[in-house]
Design a protein that fits this description.
Layout lengths: L7 H17 L18 E7 L2 E8 L2 E4 L9 E4 L3 E7 L4 E6 L8 E4 L6 H12 E8 L4 E8 L6 E7 L10 H16 L2
Antiparallel strand pairs: 1-2, 2-3, 3-4, 5-6, 6-7, 8-9, 9-10
């Protein structure tokens, strides 16, 4: 993401500063393009994945990783998009599962060395969660998760219907809306 403030020099300088922050966080080489960090975004941890020395970058807003067999582009996964983080120390695999209902498939990163990545990722995901609660939507229950998007502070409301609930059932949307309004009122949101 390039921010434009009216000056090519400013954009070059901002890129150089981001590149320095990337190197300071443990990236082996500044010759590779850094992830597209926003101007106020900071690198918290880096790790190598499948022989790629800068394969994973954790920032204050998201996790960046190189897609398979591509070292010159970055994929971004916002902390508010991740539901669960699983670490398999035997295979050095870190699996990120998206929120229920997401189109995003689970992402498994094969790390050469985990370092601080696991704790940083868990901390950032947990910090994005405001509340997670189960509410009754008769018949049945729904899980409502409220997340804060780090870059904008916007709230992301995710409703996951329990098993056996027909999403097209008459009046279900009204019952879910009522539950969300009650939750907003309880939390002052």
């Amino acid at each position: 993401m390039t921010t434009h403030h009216g000056s090519w020099t400013h954009n070059w300088l901002a890129t150089a500063v981001r590149r320095d922050r990337f190197a300071d966080a443990g990236h082996a080489s500044t010759s590779d393009p850094p992830p597209p960090l926003a101007r106020t975004e900071r690198v918290l941890a880096t790790g190598s994945a499948a022989g790629d020395p800068a394969g994973v970058v954790c920032s204050t807003r998201a996790l960046y990783h190189h897609p398979a067999d591509t070292a010159d582009t970055w994929n971004r996964v916002g902390w508010e998009e991740i539901d669960r983080v699983d670490w398999n120390p035997d295979g050095s695999d870190l699996t990120l599962t998206a929120l229920p209902g997401s189109e995003r498939a689970p992402l498994t990163l094969h790390l050469d060395e985990a370092g601080r990545l696991g704790p940083v990722i868990r901390d950032r995901v947990a910090a994005s969660v405001i509340v997670r609660t189960v509410v009754s939507v008769n018949p049945g229950r729904a899980l409502i998760t409220v997340r804060r998007r780090p870059e904008t502070d916007d709230l992301v409301w995710v409703v996951h219907l329990g098993r056996g609930i027909d999403p097209t059932a008459s009046g279900l949307n009204d019952r879910v809306d009522t539950a969300i309004r009650a939750l907003r009122a309880d939390l002052g949101l």
